[in-house]
Queue: 2 jobs
Job 1
Amino acid sequence: MKRFYKTVSVSPAGDAFAIALDGRPMKTPQRNPLAVPQPALADAIAAEWMAQGEDIIPASMPLTGLAQGALDQVDSDRDRIVGRIAAFADSDMLYYRADDSQQALIDYQAQHWDPLLDWARQRYDVGFNLIHGIRYEAQPAETIARLTNVVEAQDGFALAAMLSLVGLSGSLVATLALVEKIHDTETLWPLVNLEELWQEEQWGQDDQAVAARNVKKAEFEAAARFLELART
């Protein structure tokens, strides 16, 4: 799509802050007003639109996409979104450890992952089953229920960010560490890519895998930034 506007502005809209192009309030794909809860987030979204060149490139506007998701998807289908995020309470990648033939990797995983799980145990009063190998083992029902309640307590904008974060990381615990401001992306991204980075140390890098991981890292950082700006 060709750029069709000259100016981008932000203005109060009730309890929210709306973005306008050439003075015309923007709408989401579902025709909801593009209005967000914090002025810093509105300014950041406006900056994405202002930075567009002759062509509008949606992939270069992750904050806009997340805001649209919050307004169009979370608001209209909140229970489904909560369920998709909370499902990771039963399948968090931090639960899955190497099999017994890879003791060095088991030790490495424990060194880096156990502190994050220990934080979650204490913070939410939950327990986890650690699994060696790729077999499935259910987590305690009380753990799933309590972490689901934590997810349900988030507002729509946080849920939009969390849906992206759990999908990119495979970890609800790591996502909650961002929500709770326990760690930042620079700490968490290597943790949720620990096995891949370990394999690269042993066997060398695959350029395509590195490029794909860097794309995901940028998306992860954008979702984390959206989460932060939405509650500033």
Job 2
Amino acid sequence: MSVSQALPAPGNTTTNLDFSNYRIGPRDELIVEVFGAPELRREGEVDAAGNLSLPLVGTVVAGGRTPTEVAGSIADQLRGKYIRDPQVTVNIKKAVGQTVTVDGAVRDPGNYPIVGRMTLQQAIASAKGADDIANLDNVVVFRRVNNQQMAALFSLRQIRAGRVTDPQIYGNDIVVVGENATRRFLKNLSSVPLGSFVPFIF
């Protein structure tokens, strides 16, 4: 896999995603089915608070959870009261709130929802910004385009200075902020208690 200075937008194949680990967000449309109980089938939209309303069950928290986790919660609500051993499936009909993974030298790595248009700076800001040991000239964005994994290297320093365009981030992108080796060394050194012996190899 080669690393370039730019990335194309995701291809149409990104609409056919594996949603097993997808974190549901507001306005996502879900299909809930219960095996052997077609009358309980429901298509619904997750509200702004991340909740989904279902017959018999009532309100279910869906936001920030995977389809499997939501299915398990629904099954727990149905079990014993209405169905002895409910087999529930939750599928994504329409994914509105897709996510970006921000990792590396940031203050709070994790998966963050993309609402509207998001740029690289905004994605890093979602993770509470770059860490003290970050190498702002070594930010890599990974993206799958037409079933091919691609990557591009960006300089957050140049973007902040307005010298280069702040690239758009799409759902399922992975942003990795590199570390500055010298800053990492100095940070580790500062955590060594005074009077401790620190070996140096020349």
